[in-house]
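Weekly structure sync, notes
Attendees: PL (lead), two postdocs, one rotation student
Agenda item 3: pending single-chain targets
PL asked that the sequence for the first pending target be pasted directly into the notes so everyone works from the same version. It is reproduced below exactly as submitted, 119 residues in total.
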Amino acid sequence: MISVRKILASVALLAVVLPVQAADLGVGSNQCQLATSSTLLSETSNAALKEDVVKLMNEAVSVADDSQWINSRRPAFTWASEAKVACGKAYGYLKADYRDEDTLNKCECFHARMVQYMN
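Predicted structure, written out during the meeting:
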């Protein structure tokens, strides 16, 4: 009979050895196929870009705070949480007049994933 201690040790070993999947734009990642060409990056006005980012961020915050999505089996809440963080970072950079392409891409991508799972 296998002891509980051996099972826990095996699980701990697997947790260290196996790669962790995250909502990211990493190389080879299929997480952000919806945002292949970012519309945010094509915005020429920083003021308009800030408005767009804040809009996406506010929508993500609303979903992340909504019990309908918190208690849902669909991953909209997860993507809303990712989007609000990414959009918040993008907004922070924009307040300093810096366009960080990675955070802008993540903001748009994660928001698109959120919307995908809401429908």
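Discussion points:
- The radius of gyration is 18 Å.
- Residues 24-118 form one domain.
Action: rotation student to compare against the earlier draft before next sync.
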